[in-house]
Amino acid sequence: MGCASLVRYCYQRSPFILLDSAWDSTDQIESIRARKRFLFDSVVNDFLMSPTQLETTNPKLETDLREIAQNIVRRAISGGATAAECVVREGDEFSTLVRLGQVETLKESGSRSIGVRVFNGQRAASTYSTDFSRDGLDRMVKSALELSKITSEDPFGGIPDASQLGSLTGDLDLYHEDVYSLPGPARIDYARRAEKAALDFDPRIKNSEGGSFDAATGHKVLANSHGFVGEYRRSYCSVAAVPIAQTEEGAMQRDYWFSVARTLSKLESPEQVGKVAAERTLRRLGARKANTAQVPIIFDPTVATSILEHIFEGVNGDSVYRGASFLAEKLGQKIAGDNVTIIDDGTIPGGFGTSPFDGEGVPTRRTVVIEKGLLSSYLLNTYTAKKLGLKTTGNASRGLAGTPGIGPGNYFLQPGTRTPKQLISEIKEGLYVTEFLGHGANLVTGDYSRGASGLWISGGEFAYPVEEITVAGNLKEIFFNISEIADDLEFRGSVASPTLRIDGLTVGGA
Length: 510
Fold this sequence. Notes:
Layout: H1 6-13, H2 25-33, H3 65-78, E1 83-99, E2 102-120, E3 123-129, H4 134-147, H5 184-201, E4 205-224, E5 229-246, E6 252-254, E7 257-261, H6 270-282, E8 293-294, E9 297-299, H7 301-315, H8 317-321, E10 342-345, E11 366-371, E12 374-375, H9 382-388, E13 396-397, E14 405-406, E15 410-413, H10 420-425, E16 429-437, E17 447-458, E18 461-474, H11 475-478, E19 482-485, E20 495-496, E21 500-502, E22 506-508
Parallel strand pairs: 9-16, 15-20
Antiparallel strand pairs: 1-2, 1-4, 2-3, 4-5, 5-6, 5-7, 8-22, 9-21, 10-11, 10-15, 11-12, 13-14, 16-17, 17-18, 18-22, 19-21
Helix pairs in contact: 5-6
């Protein structure tokens, strides 16, 4: 299953599953969209087990990151920049993949990187580096200053006003040292136990794409020429399993399950993860096509987040000011049913999308995006807020270089009061979607059509698995047709949704 971990497999099902590990939302979005492009440090001899792949990078440097960031800003200003900001980040990651009981991949990395963005009036440029030597940092700053002289002017560019800058105080419960408390063999055992639990669950589980265990810690510092300096640490760990089931006729199905937490103490047991992964896989055996029909559809929480992601793209300030969103010019208008309230909250202690400040140094906050169906707010950074004549919502997210983008905090649909079982029991004939394939949403027109698989509902109960079907409709109508919202909200990433019932969609099958 490749050389990294099952996180990659989970990402293919939902890009927002593991939005955050050691970095802020954008940093992790970047790394996941690049398929967790690990730069590995060194693997100690205790980890040597065959067959094992080892990757190494340079040893870590011991320097004060705050001082480095502030010094780079000072250098940029003394070099002629009218404004500047610097981001420095470092972290450690561990990843192991066990397949059929054998260690297939074992990696441990340490990385450190730095980026600077400078402004020359209304011109801007950015550069980044992993070279922390004096000459390396000088080259980085010099390159940014030279580039800023030839880039195009943009009257909306710039860092936030000093009055907008700040950082949340208090313990946000983002960092726990215990994610690295286990010795090497115990970390490997987590992955092995998850896979074994899945393989032992039922004789129809014939094969496996592996069990995995990942852990990461990170440290980020942001400084700018308005005197802002902020920093925070984060931790993350996960365990996952991807079993393969097979019928007597040889037909195979695959599914997965995982647990993710900021601290090892809140991680589900490997045995529980393996058991759920096996159950999810077995229920797919014997899948067939469904007849084309317009029926109620229940969205499992793992796929219901995709609906929220479409709304996120629609309220993303970048899409809005470009006129590339179906929600452009809809602020203050009714866009969903009265039961739909969507919140973005970057302040929730321990949340996967929580941070004390955003990618520009603006304190994170709680923003009600949709309140009882009414579009209350777009999600903005400083640049898009200026373009739209609004105020930033503290959703700037950035990597080491380039213009900040927009990322979610803890972005979720407010849950209802009924259980998923109650929602299912009221459906005579319908579909329970457990997986979407491909990306079939047009965020300009709202047209929606995606390949799907799941379970057919008959008489209020699951009847048989289905696959090779499509679910089609229009996003503008879908949000009004969310008829039921269950009570099972659970965060397994920075975007979360309870189970949903949506009416008016067409299931395309046989």
